[in-house]
Amino acid sequence: MNTRTISGRLRGAAVLALLPLLTLTACGSGDTGGTAAVGAQASPVPTDDPVAAVRKVDSAAALLPADVREAGKLKVGSSIGFPPGAYYPNGTDKAAAGQDIDLADAVAKVLGVQLERQDASFETILPALGSGKYDFGTGNFGVTAERLKTIDFVTYINDGQGFAVKQGNAELKGKVTDLTQLCGLTIGTGAGTTFEATLTAQKGVCAKAGKKPYDVKVYSENAATLTALQQGRIDVIMSTINGLRYQAAQPASQTAFLGEFHRLDVGFAFKKGSPLTKAFQAAVDELIKDGTYTRILKKWGTSASAIDASRINPPEHT
Question: How far is CA 28 from the centre of its chain?
Fold first, then answer.
């Protein structure tokens, strides 16, 4: 499934208070930012803390490289942008919250390490893994065949691609199962995402069907995508299943979720050949086994995205 700049998150407390509701992200996308729509209100943050009871598991920690165990810390490039994945419920000067935050923190506790979280826009994280700037990345990164060429993944949920429209939309009312249903419409999505890649790769489908092509508008700020929808500058949004479903449940967003289009595994991202993947896989499996995983997903309303076991570099869903 989480493309905004750091400066975009510094535009004032009034805007920041609205962003948790309004920002969307892709498999994945990232930072908060942009202009919030008028009248939106953030939903309450869940108060339960399933991560608090997590303890180190020696068998999983032993899979870490010796130098990591000795240092006791890992650097994570974290794309923060939208509930329920990762967002700032109380502004960027306060702690981030969300499913991805809880899962990363829980994995770190199982492995007995501290996380040094560095906020970054989605599109910068994967390239930075190879340089060693981050040990791993989070941001609702969907596992695709193209990304597997240069990135290793350790899966932790199953999310994917979906569509949403403004409530009352007369052109799209049912589930989108084929992109030809979008012919003649304008689609908004995030830069550098699987959504942009899918729409670009399939841009010829309308011509083959003898229809007017769809137009794609790419936004570097998540909130700007929703604002464009509300103002009629785009007809439909393509983003994450969980993000769009969450957004549609907030009355102020005035959006309708059109259902799932394509499922994708989502995982922690690492440079190719990283020695960390087996330890992370073992940690996720420990969380699944002891019930922490189930409690985290229940907390954030994403139980439908649960997996039975973590996998390293699974093939892309077809």
Answer: 4
